[in-house]
Amino acid sequence: MRVVFLGTNGWYDNRAGNTICVLIECGDRYVVLDAGNGIHKMDAALQKRKPVDLFLSHFHLDHIVGLHTLVRLDLSAGLRIFGQAGAREALGNILRQPYTVPLGEMPFKAGVFELPDERALAPYLKDVRPLVHAAPCIGFRFEIEGRTIAYCTDTGMCSNLIELGRGADLLITECSALDGQRRDSWPHLSPQDAVAVARETQAKRVALVHFNASLYPTVESRVAVQEQVAREADNIIVAFDDMVLEL
Q1: Is the peptide bond before 116 cis (omega within 30 degrees of 0)?
Q2: CB-based burial label for 88 (10 Å; 0-12, 13-18, 19+)
Q3: What is the spatial distance between Cα 201 and Cα 29, in angstroms, rounded to a whole number?
Q4: For residues 38 and 7, is the Cβ–Cβ distance under 8 A?
Q5: What does DSSP say about strands 206-209 and 236-238: parallel, antiparallel, or unpaired?
Q6: Where are the domains of the chain?
Q7: For residue 34, what pLDDT is reported?
Q8: pLDDT on residue 184
Q9: DSSP string spanning 60-109?
Q10: Which pTM was predicted?
Q11: Of all helices (H) and strands (E), which one includes residue 130?
Q12: Below-50 pLDDT ranges, the chain
């Protein structure tokens, strides 16, 4: 199983990366996590024609702005978009004229499904829980081909983050804030928070994404985070755009 980090930025694109999007290549489908601008690179990763399941953590623009590029992708095997309650209305307000091609007019079959009510449609999704953020946001825990992958961004420290990531083969979470920086109205994790999460969850690997493009504007600034966290936890990596992990 391959995990491809198509975009690792939060907020906006810069020379260090595109906004957030992660692709998991499974045997029978592709699982895509969030739809920032990194999703436009998905065509290079779609090596076989398989259905795509896209999971949206929330509706902040850096997580959905790439949806307007879907029309250029070969998704002829079908696209299912999963989001929290209210996803149909939220996406229906954006995926329409005059903003972009409406979902119903895409050159492939597509549908929007709401969680947790329609979770049974994706039996490999084992848990979905609310996280702590400025807007309603959900985290996911998947069991795919004998591997457990958790995806939790955007979030501050909370018990659901720990439970979703506990013992996972791979926990993908965030590093948006600087150490010592706290905004209760807009919660995010710092490098020290990420270390605490890695220790408490005991995930086998923790990959950090969603780097604030203003606070971490260069690849070098993220390499510095990698060096910092590696001194305190041996199971954390910093993910960069186009990085591929094999599970």
Answers
A1: yes
A2: middle
A3: 28
A4: yes
A5: parallel
A6: 2-246
A7: 99
A8: 79
A9: -HHHHGGGGGGGGS--TT-EEEEEETTHHHHHHTTSSTTTS--GGGSSS-
A10: 0.97
A11: strand 125-130
A12: none
Dihedral (C-alpha) 90, 55, 7, 51: value to the nearest 10 degrees?
-120
DSSP helix/strand/coil, 32: strand
pLDDT at 181: 87
- Tokens 């398989």 found at: 50
End-to-end CA distance of the chain: 5
- Output the 3-class SS for 134-195: CCCCEEEEEEECCEEEEEECCCCCCHHHHHHHCCCCEEEEECCCCCCCCCCCCCCCCHHHHH
For residue 105, report the phi and psi dihedrals to the nearest 5 degrees: -105, 5
State which fold the 2-246 domain adopts: Metallo-beta-lactamase; Chain A (3.60.15)
List, in sequence order, every residue forming a beta bridge with 202; answer none if it has no partner.
none
**What's the one-letter identity of residue 84?**
Q
Query: Which among 6, 66, 64, 55 has a CA at the least distance from the CA of 29?
Result: 55
Q: Give the pLDDT score at 92.
A: 97
Hey, what are 239's tokens? Answer: 């993910």
